[in-house]
Amino acid sequence: MKPTHEQLNAYLDGELTTAEHQQVEAYLREHPDVAATLEAWRADGAALKHALDTAPQPPNPALTPPAIRRRRAARQRHRFGLAAGLALALGLGAAGGWQARGSLYAAASPPMADAVEAYKLFAATADTPPPSQAQLADWFNRYFEGASPPPTLETYGLELVDARLMATQDGPAVVVLYRNGNRQTLLFYIRPPSPGGPSMPNGQRHDGDLMARYWSDGRFNYALVSRSNTPLVPGPELFGA
Amino acid sequence: MNDLEQELAAEIPALRRFATTLTRHTANADDLVQTTLEKAIVAWARRDEDRDIRTWLFSILYRQFVDNQRRSSRHRRLLQWFLPSDEPATGSLEQQYEVRSALGVFDRLPESQRTVLLLIAVEGMRYKEVGAALGIPVGTVMSRVSRARQTYRQLMEKPQRARHLKVMK
Fold it and tell me: A201 CA to chain B: closest CA distance, Å?
């Protein structure tokens, strides 16, 4: 039986069953011309592999995983900065009492919208190493003097897995990410209040299946964001509210 | 570098070869690899751990390539309204190689044949893995690699036929 071209290729690539393989082998013994074609195909493949293996690949430092990770993180921070800036600019109208526009924007931008956005952004990924405790302490001393620092939540099975500094138009903000063994995420967000405006009222709101609990101590605004069905911690009191 | 990064770094030369085979353009190929690595880093936790990492990466790269092609053909259609002539061929590698050299011949295969030949004869992937990476049935992989080897051989023997073979696809 004469094997098809496909079968000959499959033979060459070791894709045949033992029985089929033996059949082709027997055929090739009797048909040296076909065996020669097969040998030419094999040699072509080997020559191509050699040529490609030895073809120089110009070094490209941008193509290393750490470089890619850094670029991604930078882009994400940038994107978040824009989103936060926008949310905040709109949110000011609502929280800051710009009467003329307040009612319009209040609907469009509920309180602490940027904290919810931050949750959506970071809950999915946390692939850059988190800052050390010392770094975190330094951020708080420098940018959030007098703010309640992120508590340890081991009692609730939550571990502090990441923290990032953000820029807002009112000054630096920080996002702290906690995660438990089931990869459920809790986000703690601190940012300065809008200057001149009344302090943000305490409250709670839902956005899709996310829930934000927020409060203010006058010096800073705080928010806790989690999934609505799994709050993970009882309430903002843990965070000094 | 962590484990993930080391595993990815080990695959970069093969990814660049694959991307160059697809795009035939070094800079475009590196862009494609970069996007692939970014997507892999994001999707790492969600990947099927039983799946061979190279097959997985190749499938990400190939999907991205197909998306780019689609997008650029849309662009080209739009641009045609504004530009008198077609874009120059994308800095093809063709001229760099001797017509009858391995790479010269390889470069003249249609994309679909070039791709399977690379994955099977050079990267040593199984038909099943190639099918998974390219999103095509194993039967198609078989017929493509068979055609690729025949075309390759013909081009080695009679390089003159190259032109119309390429057009025929």
Answer: 37
Count of other CB atoms within 10 angstroms of residue A24: 19
Tell me whether residues B121 and A49 touch, CB distance under 8 A: yes
Same domain, A224 and A121: yes
The pLDDT tens digits of the residues spanning A200-230 come to 777 777 766 677 788 888 788 888 888 878 8
If asked whether residues A13 and A96 sit together in one domain, one would say no
Angle subtended at Cα A212 by Cα A211 and Cα A213, rounded to the nearest 5 degrees: 120
CA distance linking residue B97 with residue B74, whole number of Å: 31
Same domain, A120 and A37: no
pLDDT tens, position by position, A132-166: 778 888 888 888 888 877 888 888 999 888 787 77
Residue A141's domain comprises 62-239
Q: What ipTM is given for this predicted complex?
A: 0.77
**Structural domains of chain B sorted by starting position, each given as residue range(s) with its CATH number in brackets:** 1-92 (1.10.1740), 96-169 (1.10.10.10)
* Confidence band, pLDDT 50/70/90 cuts, at residue A125: very low
Q: Please give the residue that has the higher pLDDT: either A146 or B98.
A: A146
Pairing state between β A171-179 and A159-168: antiparallel
Contact A44 B121 (CB under 8 A): yes
A14-19, long-range: CB < 8 A, 24+ apart: A15/B126, A15/B127, A15/B142
Mean pLDDT computed over A178-202: 78
CA distance B143 to chain A (A): 6
| Same-domain check for residues A29 and A83 | no
